[in-house]
Every structure is written in C-alpha cells, then in structure tokens.
Amino acid sequence: MKLRLEHLSADLFGLDEDIRAAISSGSLGGVPVPGRLEDLARPSDRHDAGQRVLLARALTKGHAFHELPGRALTSLSVLAEEGTFCVVAGQQPGLCASPFYSLYKGLQACRLATDLSRLWGCPVVPLFWNHGDDHDVAEVHHAHQLNRNLDLHKVKLAGLSSGRTPLSQVRFDEELHSLGPTRALLAQMYEEFEGTEAALELFFPRPGESFARAFTRTMSALLGPMGLLLVEPDWIRPALSSALADLIALDPEPLLREGSGPGSSIDPAQAALVYQVQDGQRRALRTGGEGFAFDKEPGSRTAAELAAEIAGQPRDWSAGALLRPLVQDAVLPVAATIGGHGELRYHAQLAPLRAAAGIPNTPFVLRISLTLTDPEVRAALERAGATLADVLAARGNWQPKERPATGDAPSLGASLRKEAELAAERLRTMRQQITDLQGNLAGNLERTARQVKAAIEKLALKVERVQANQSGQGQRVLRRINNSLRPLGQPQERVLGPLQYCARFGLDWIEDLYRELPPICFEHLVVHLATDADSSHD
Q1: What is the Cα–Cα distance from 87 to 82, expressed in whole angstroms?
Q2: What is d(CA 495, CA 481) in angstroms, rounded to the nearest whole number?
Q3: Mean pLDDT, to the nearest integer, of 215-223?
Q4: Are strands 229-231 and 124-130 parallel, antiparallel or unpaired?
Q5: pTM above 0.85, yes or no
Q6: pLDDT digit string (tens) for 250-266?
Q7: 202, 218 in Cβ contact below 8 A?
Q8: Which of 13, 190, 238, 313 has most Cβ atoms within 10 angstroms of its Cβ?
Q9: Cis preceding-peptide flag for 333 (omega within 30 of 0)
Q10: What is the distance between the alpha carbons of residues 273 and 343, in angstroms, rounded to a whole number?
Q11: 3-class DSSP assignment, residue 42
Q12: What are phi and psi of 508, to 5 degrees?
C-alpha cells in the first residue's frame, strides 16, 4: 500500500470571512481556535474518580456487543483514571459509515489525542460521539457510489422515510429494508476488487442492528486500532440528562441570544433546544409561552419545571444541537473538540451560557478536509491536462479547454465517415445490374447500402470516443474526473464514503493516513492512493 499527501489551499472550497478571521486570530466568539498543537493548553481536571469510573463502565457495557481492538480497550481502561482527557469528534451514523468526513473526523481525533498525550505527558483518549439521537433518516439512509460507468449511484435502503424515530431505534429488517438485494447490488458494483466481500462484511448493516449500532461496529473496527472509542448517547443518558437539567434551570434562551449575532448558525428563538422521546418518537421543545413549549401543542412549562421533568425522567430527554456541546463538555473530560465551520459558529454562540454554567471554553479544532485520488483519476487528469486545483475549484463542472487543430489532415473518424459514404454509393452504382437480374432485389440493395453505411459510421463514433478519452476530451474521462473529485458539485468528503476504497485498497491505507495526518491543518489535503500493483500504471 502506498500513500502520498499533497497540500492545497483551503480557499479551493471558499472560506467565509468569519472563519478566515478565526483562523487568523485564533478564536471566534471567545472560543479558542488553535493553529498549532502547542496552542492547546492542558486543561484542569474537573471530573472526580467516581464520575470517571461510571463513564468507563457505561462505555464498557455499551461496547459489550462486539470485540474491541486492543488499543481501544486501553482507551477504556485509562478513561477511568484521574488526569485522563479526551478529544471529541462526532457525526450522525450514516449508511456504510458514509460520508467520508465521519472517518476523517475520527482519524483526526486519534492523531490529535496521540500527539497531545506526548506533549502533555498524560493519557488523552479519542472519543467519537455517535449521534444516534438524531432522527433525520432521509439524511443517512443512502450511500453514494461511483459505478462502473463512472456515474454516481445513490444506493438506498428500502422502507425508510423521514420520521421522528431516533436513529438509535431504527433497526434494520432483512425483508422490510431489502438488505440482501442492496448488498448484492454493491457486491456486483465492485466485484472486480478482491476485498469487496470483506469490505461489505465490515460496512454493510446487519439484520437487527440500528443505524447507531452498525456505525459503532464499523468505526470501532476501522479506528479502534488507533485508540478510538465510540460513544452512543443512550449509554450515558442519566449523566447527560443531569447536565441538561442544570442548563435548562438557568433559563438558557436569553443567554444564547446574547451570544448570537448575524453570522450565527442557529437561531435560539427558533431552535429545538430540547427533545423528549415518547412512544419512540422525538418531540421538540422550543422557547415559547412561559418558557418552553412542544411544537403544535397548547400549554408550556417554565425552565424550572422542565428541568425538574428532565431530572425525574432522564431516559426520555436529549439536548438539541445548540446545547449538545455544553452537555458533552459537562459529562466528558474534554480537552478539545473537532468539527466543521458550521459547528464552530454555533459553539461561538455559547460563551454567555458557558460562563453561567461554569463550563470552560473548550478549544475547537477545525476538522481536516481531504480528497482521495486513485491511479485512474490521476491518469485521467494527466490525459486531460487538468490540475487537481482546477478541478476542485470547478465544483464538478470542469471542462477541458479546446485544443488547437493539428493541421488540415482529417480525423480518423471523419475518414471513416467518408469511406461509409463511398461504400454506399459504390453499392448503389450496381442498382441497374441487380434490377436487370431480378427487379425485386433492388430494394435489398438499397437496404444493404444503408446498413453498410450505418455500420461504418457506428465504428467511426466508437473510434472518436476512444480517441477523445485518450486525449482527455472524452465524456468518460470527464465523468471520472468530476464525479470522483467533486461529486454532485460538492467536496468528495461530503458525498462519497470509504466502502469502495476499502474494497479496492483494503484497510492499511487508513492506518497509513493516521501516521501521516497532521493533527491540525488549515490546508486542503489530497491523499494519493496506490497499491504495489498500481505502481506500474501510476
């Protein structure tokens, strides 16, 4: 397995002014945005031995359904010890661990935790928040694949539609969700790769698993060897609800409004700050009435009343997106959070509420952005005379510049078309002879002339396509370039997932990338993949 990193400007995907300013100044809304490992100071330990032991026990129980890799077991063990901290990343659980940035967040958490452990001289554990509380099934029930025609194929599980059921409770059924046919489709799509069956066994959900459970199993297998621990909110619900009740008791909406501005990601007056799960369905509470009210239901409750409800029935409640970072920071010994630009913006809204709750400002490390290439993509770029930067900047619409004509000589395709015309005309010159022989054969002659012409013209079209692809001008080359590097006009990491790359390249490239990955990086990284067998073609 061979891997090479290339650094490109982050401006390829555009940087908003507030993010550019945050990178330049090292903060946004009071949230530290470190640019170097050394900018991260070791935090004070706010969690006592009892809290740590309960946390480690809860995660041990949660992971009991499968066998954790050795280094993940070490992470579990040291998490119970005082003076251990963690780096937290997170995402909702997508089908087959899609899209790519879930894997990248987890990898970066592992890299940052390892490097902070060395810098601080104490254990730092990478944690991944598997957001099974989310209920947006339509966002996660599919995985885009690049098929043999180099078109994007949206592989989707049947029988799933948007609802209010948390992803941790959406369980896969063999018949209802057509698991067998969907897996067979993926197996056929990548049958040329030796590792396809092993990759499907790892990535594809199993009957009886939930979205959250399948994601935990897959990510643990991929990144557990680097120490990553998955955390499903259900495993630590009592602690999370206790922290949520404390926040609600502070009447958070005015404090959130104080921290919000024109560039904020989430409007606290409109956002669902709290969810209740009742009869398997999430119900949103927003600010309204005397404090908080359910959507489309009469009545409300004060902040104190809601806090008491949460404390009294901790299994039934979860934080909305805006309060979740504070709940996490209250329950987990967090040293740093990893996330994207949108996440940074709503973290920046929390400063007044953090101060009121006595929760320190956790440093926010911007997630690393990556694009993978394979030998065929690199060959296509070379044939087309394209650079990676040009293609990424073109948002999936890269087109080659017209090449100047090379003299007056006709193309091979044009020559074949001329021969098609001549062949048909030569046959037609024999019309009288055929008619004299037998009159009704004249029609057969005309049909034959047309068929000969059509057959040669079909060959000419194929020749032109092959020549165009070899010169970088063909549609197949363009589909490979645009759909591989900028699928749907978006960054690759937001659309494609790791299944097809693991089917072809195995899993070693993930550990290789972990070793090469910088813990903090504001550039866009291109990961060039190749196996030993590919090296002669690359």
Answers
A1: 16
A2: 15
A3: 98
A4: parallel
A5: yes
A6: 999 999 999 998 878 89
A7: yes
A8: 190
A9: no
A10: 15
A11: coil
A12: -60, -30
